[in-house]
Amino acid sequence: MQEVADAIVCTGCDAAYRRTRLGRREIATCPRCGTELDRNWGAWATRILPLTTACLILFIIANAFPIVEIELRGLHSETTLVGALFALTQEGRSLVALLVLATTLAFPLAQLLILLYLAVPLVDRRRPAGFQILVRLMQSLRPWGMIEVFLLGVLVAIVKLSGMAHVLPGPALWAFMGLTVLLTVLLSFNPRAFWRVVFDADAERQE
Amino acid sequence: MSRHWRQLPSELASAVRPAVVAQFTEPAEVEVHQASELGLRGCPHCGTVWRDVGEGEPCGHCGTRLHRRKPDSFRRTWALLIAACIMYLPANLLPVMVTRSLFGTQYDTILSGVIYFWVGGSYGVAAIIFVASFLVPLFKLVALVLMTTLAQRGSTWRRPERAKLYHAVEFIGRWSMLDVFVVSLLVGLVRIQGFAEITAGIGIAAFGSVVVLTMLASLSFDPRLTWDPRPERAAPP
After folding, report:
1. What is the side-by-side order of every strand in the sheet holding B49-51?
2. Hey, are the CB atoms on B62 and A22 less than 8 Å from each other?
3. Which of B35, B68, B101 is the last residue of a domain?
4. pTM score of the predicted model
5. Chain centroid to CA B104: how far?
6. Are A26 and B21 in contact (CB under 8 A)?
7. Residue B206 falls within a domain, yes or no?
8. Do A157 and B5 touch (CB under 8 A)?
């Protein structure tokens, strides 16, 4: 087993290419299948920490406050995300509750915490304990966090209820909107870029 | 100089073309070499490229097992797809939401929810739910069956379009969770005892399982199989 240093292999079609040096914000794509091969991340590493912190704050607000309130002839009802999950569990739909818990709460939170843990030592390009496993976990969690779909779900639910009750958006709704925007930016980073940072640091140390 | 810019072995350098910096080009049938034919294998996790790798040997940098193709890709994809097709029926036929109010009990399936919005005049919302909950899962099932069948036959028919289709399936997969979230939220919110109460129907569990199964199917499908040369008749599958 031998490393081939300046080659790159497309994950979408297994085509082999010679690595091209990329300028700022340039993206190399596979001309055959369109999969992204490599990207110049620019000031990527310096943006992770502030973005993750902002996301975590919004995440707490989004889950601590009610998302929507309804008023129906003087009767009043409101729910948080966790409240909705409890209601589902009480009805015996615990599998559905588990699915929602995982995709809107557990996985995004895990992604944010891992990013925070990785981003702090990244500032001086160190590799924290468990780096391998955590970067791999980041990659596996990537398709399963669905905050943005949940936000659309909240909006649809509001429209659905507006016909029969008076609907008031709660503070968590605004937090979810901000969270969706920031998370989209934050998670567009390919976890593979973590390895690139570490490889480059290793190479410099060898010289 | 970082070590990423060291030279390729000379016998490979002539065969491998440089990566293209391009953002808005259409994929096309281009003459490139399969890494597996050159004896190269890229780590799917950290991107390092290796030569002379045994099947299933761990990557020297990140420890990911390096397989030529995802193991048992066809069999796993088919199993998940068949399961998803079976669950697709109860997901669309059984009620996903039960509304109990003073006016009686109402059972809603995915499509009756769409009709409710359409009749009520919210065409935009009706369209969103129809696309996300009905068309997207159906499109995913058809697309995955098509891609898996063609790849298994070693077909070269419209490969760039099939690659695009795979990207599309990966991108839209998550959006069909929409109805699961809508129902969960309504269940948590509309709990005014004896006046109006919404509970989740068994259909939503089936629907959630379709979304998860199709996502797993698209993850276990290996898009590289689309570009592999037609398998020899004598070779084991």
Report:
1. A2-4, B49-51, B40-42
2. no
3. B68
4. 0.87
5. 40
6. yes
7. yes
8. no
